[in-house]
Amino acid sequence: MTAPIIVWFRDDLRMADNPALRHAVDSGKPVLCLYVLDEDSDEVRALGGAAKWWLHGSLTALGADLTEAGASLQLRRGPAEDVVPAVVAETGADAVVWNRRYGAARDVDARLKTRLREEGLEVSSFDAALLVEPWTMQTGSGGPYAVFTPFWRSVQKRLQEDPPRHPLARPKTIDGFEGAGSGSGDALDDWGLLPKHPDWAGGLRENCVPGEKDAHDKLHAFLADDVVDYVDGRDRPGESVTSGLSPHLRWGEISPHQIWATANQARDRRNADAVGSFLREVGWREFTHHVLYHFPRLATDNWRAEFDAFPWPDLDESALQAWQQGRTGIPLVDAGMRELWHTGTMHNRVRMVTASFLIKNLLIDWRLGEQWFWDTLVDADPANNPFNWQWVAGSGADATPYFRVFNPELQAKKFDPHGDYIRRWVPEYGTDDYPEPLVDLASTRQAALAAYDVVKHARAEAQGD
After folding, report:
1. Which of 38, 154, 317, 442 is 20 to 30 A from 290 in CA distance terms?
2. Residue 246 labelled as part of a binding site
3. Is residue 212 annotated as part of the catalytic site, yes or no?
4. Any known ligand binding at 184?
């Protein structure tokens, strides 16, 4: 039997516009599709609970699509550096392909690529997750970008001069490998990705549909209708005018190339500004991955080293818990945290407000907030999630100024003026059942500014000022 080629799926759980899968199909070899749940490698961050729920649904959808095309999805659990070579040995594969990752996990890929090539295998990796590879974008001085606007301007210029590749067609048929080792692997249900005791995922089931099909349905529905209101409505959490694509992008059920091509095809005089604004958000995702590539410890270390001097007080566990549960007595913050728990997502404007409240009003380390979001977001992304938390904290690239403290009451008046969002998620607001505010917004803002002064002085001393 002809030796198979292994397609190692990771955060690219789709069939269309999947360069690694396309290469494997075009090779003429039998194709073995593999997914490895790696929770043991130091460079691979273990998934949170909501992400595991989404992953279960996404793997189910991908497995069904592959089966329909003539292949099957083999599931394995363990360190990828052990599992992939083991599958190679069991099946006699002489080639392995995958789509690239850009955080610390790329070190796993590099070591595997070297090892397998030394053993005589063909190993290839492909660009599938970004419009531009992070190392190809450099400032005039030759370094990585630290500010979004010039980065996005350069990306747009690049894409005008060298347009993104056209999305690759979905393989209609796949010659699935059926030789030795093809029938081994794990049952998805045995991985325990779905919560059971207790089952807290009812809201996720009501609001989320993992899989490639729903991703494209959402994109087409958004471009056909809601996009015209995107510029004015994207900041209003009580209105449904966003695309809802973030979890699909995070899991690679749709690619930025597909979004770019489809959005530009739908662009016309009526929606040109809105489509541009929407694609700018795709650009923000590109920027966060650019920063992650150059700073892989984004989830644990301050991007700006001077923020190591920030004087975090002793942790107030009760305040952290009140924030997590949406019981702070600050309506917009509580609405956002309850939306997060129920749906696995949160409106972007409210993400900034809830993060600012935790960091700058409660003076709780941004890393604890980032970890909570990592565990409760279905779109928890290794780049976007820590980048955005550091952006709010002021410790990251292109960060909001340290003195900017989102006032949740003013934010609610501006972006939820009729209280639709708050009433939906905090129905007891205005009654005796709703708690008093956990802190005073004005005095805690002043305390935050005083703490940030310590960082300013530390930076000045380091610079010799």
Report:
1. 38
2. yes
3. no
4. no
**pTM exceeds 0.90:** yes
Indicate if 281 belongs to the active site.
yes
**What are the backbone dihedrals phi and psi of residue 6, each rounded to the nearest 5 degrees, phi first?**
-95, 130
Does the annotation place 434 within a ligand binding site?
no
361 annotated active-site: no
pLDDT at 457: 82
> Which pLDDT score, from 0 to 100, does residue 270 have?
85
pLDDT score at 464: 67
Which pLDDT does position 129 carry in this prediction? 97
Catalytic residue from among 8, 54, 323, 366:
366
Residue 312 is among the residues annotated as catalytic for this protein = yes
Res 465: pLDDT? 56
Is the link from the previous residue into 150 a cis peptide, with omega within 30 of 0?
no
Q: Which entry of 372, 389, 391, 425 is annotated as an active-site residue?
A: 389
* 284 has catalytic annotation: yes
Place of tokens 């928890």: 380
Counting as low any pLDDT under 50, the low residues of the chain are: none
**Residue 425: active-site member:** no
pLDDT of residue 74: 97
Q: Is 120 annotated as a binding residue?
A: no
Among 152, 284, 341, 425, which one carries the catalytic annotation? 284
Report which secondary-structure segment, H or E, holds 75: strand 73-77
* Annotated binding residue 381: yes
DSSP characters for 231-276? HHHTT-TTS--S---HHHHHTTSS-HHHHHHHHHHH--TTTHHHHH
